[in-house]
Design goal:
The protein is α/β, with parallel strands linked by helices. The chain has helices spanning 18-30, 43-49, 60-78, 96-107, 128-136; strands at 6-10, 34-41, 87-93, 111-113.
Length: 141
């Protein structure tokens, strides 16, 4: 019996995610399912780069350029296993935990795989987005 039919892997660019991606690929191959890799970019990151205050307006050209850059990063990440596994890449521009939860609700994911953020902190292993996903995500994390 195959347990997972729709697996989501969330990109965490601040940490090494090779083990998380390898685990996601392994699960997708063992369950004979597609793998969806999503990169969620907070809008504050985009506006801060151009000197705008957080929450300021974002032009369509800027949004498209940022999405294109992040999509290229995702494509280079999945390049090594793209022939053996069907993958779909997506880039969302909203708060990380909220965007991930919305995507999980909209697409009915069975499992979310994400590397832990802020691994260098001494007192907390999981970051704020991780804890939000543990509490509110509709699928196992």
């Amino acid at each position: 019996m195959k347990r997972f039919k729709n697996i989501l892997c969330l990109n965490e660019p601040t940490v090494d995610q090779a083990s998380a991606v390898a685990r996601a690929v392994s699960l997708a191959e063992n369950n004979q399912t597609d793998l969806i890799i999503v990169d969620v970019i907070p809008p504050q990151v985009v506006t801060a780069r151009i000197g705008q205050p957080p929450g300021g307006p974002i032009s369509d050209e800027l949004r498209a350029a940022v999405e294109c850059d992040h999509r290229k990063i995702l494509e280079s990440m999945v390049q090594s296993f793209s022939e053996s596994l069907q993958t779909r890449l997506d880039v969302l521009l909203e708060k990380t935990s909220l965007g991930t939860i919305r995507a999980a609700l909209k697409n009915g994911y069975d499992l979310l795989i994400k590397p832990a953020e802020n691994q260098s902190r001494r007192n907390r292993f999981f970051g704020s987005d991780d804890l939000h996903l543990f509490r509110k995500c509709p699928c196992p994390v």
